Amino acid sequence: xxxxxxxxxxxxxxxxxxxxxxxxxxxxxxxxxxxxxxxxxxxxxxxxxxxxxxxxxxxxxxxxxxxxxxxxxxxxxxxxxxxxxxxxxxxxxxxxxxxxxxxxxxxxxxxxxxxxxxxxxxxxxxxxxxxxxxxxxxxxxxxxxxxxxxxxxxxxxxxxxxxxxxxxxxxxxxxxxxxxxxxxxxxxxxxxxxxxxxxxxxxxxxxxxxxxxxxxxxxxxxxxxxxxxxxxxxxxxxxxxxxxxxxxxxxxxxxxxxxxxxxxxxxxxxxxxxxxxxxxxxxxxxxxxxxxxxxxxxxxxxxxxxxx
Length: 308
Prior knowledge:
By secondary structure, the protein is mainly α. Helix content is 56%, strand content 5%. Strand 3 (125-127), helix 9 and strand 4 (158-160) form a beta-alpha-beta unit. 29% of the residues are buried.
């Protein structure tokens, strides 16, 4: 849910009006996943999720990150104009280490690969959550430094952050993230989804007193409501008598109903993997053409094209 409301839903909307480039970040996933089978399964499952949730690979450019290896060459090139101090200031890296994630150079240099993901394809508007805002600012810094060094070559991207969904709480009140094991999945077993929702942290305010509208339960529920629904839920929270358990059961039913069409589509796609693989292949070919064009300019201005 955090990925869907924070990023995926906006990207799906973009494809209606813009030239959307979207991909599954399996290079990035390697910073924390060393088990090949898990990486393989997560990669294709993420692709199925995107398509099931509405991303149309025939109306956008959609691919698997590692299928366009030009991005790794691009990463090396821009690494040489990236100040070490800039990467050392990454709060995301420090946060992951404090949470017990083992440090490695991939995790440390993650912002440079992310910058390459954007700059290598000429991205001008990037939908990001609050937790990725700093990385997008780093991308801008890297692009500006490159342009100042070699001339105006790279597009300097702008972030698109929706205030209401920029940072969704997980079931423990922290940022919703798989790294923290506090997510509410969209797909999969309904019993597990229900268990996660019923585990959303709440306070011990007595039933006959008003409840906190800043709680994770309230913030998650309003994502599925229109303005009238939001006002009604707020009124219920601020009125005596509300029981958190009842609201959690309502949230579970709301989530299952909201995502039911997507869950059905994903089940269909799982039985038609030839279509999925074909679309991913088409997407990587389209993305590769764009990457080659931009990389050619970068190689020329940096002096890597030594042949006359």
